[in-house]
């Protein structure tokens, strides 16, 4: 079963939440941290991550800082104030969605 399909619609929320908690991070670091937090259950590919990061940056939810590390330029992403507000909204939506899914999956709990 392809578990990652369940996460695709949640990637923006995952990224924003992670950056809100961790501070600035570069792309590869984000992928590794998600994998670490989920004990390897969720693997975020670069092909999914970078378009999401660019979309969030275009919306003003993330900003970018460039830094030279070991003679290479590294692009760090960090959440803006607007991004922090949007993260709170997205997390509330996610919690509501999860509650509804729990009721649908196990109606006896309702």
Automatic annotation (TrEMBL):
Please list the residue ranges annotated as the Transcription regulator PadR N-terminal domain. 15-88
Keywords assigned by UniProt, alphabetized: DNA-binding
Report the GO molecular function annotations: DNA binding
Q: Which stretch is the leader sequence?
A: none
User: What InterPro entries does the annotation carry?
Assistant: Metal_resp_DNA-bind_regulator (IPR052509), Tscrpt_reg_PadR_N (IPR005149), WH-like_DNA-bd_sf (IPR036388), WH_DNA-bd_sf (IPR036390)
This chain belongs to which protein, by name? DNA-binding transcriptional regulator, PadR family
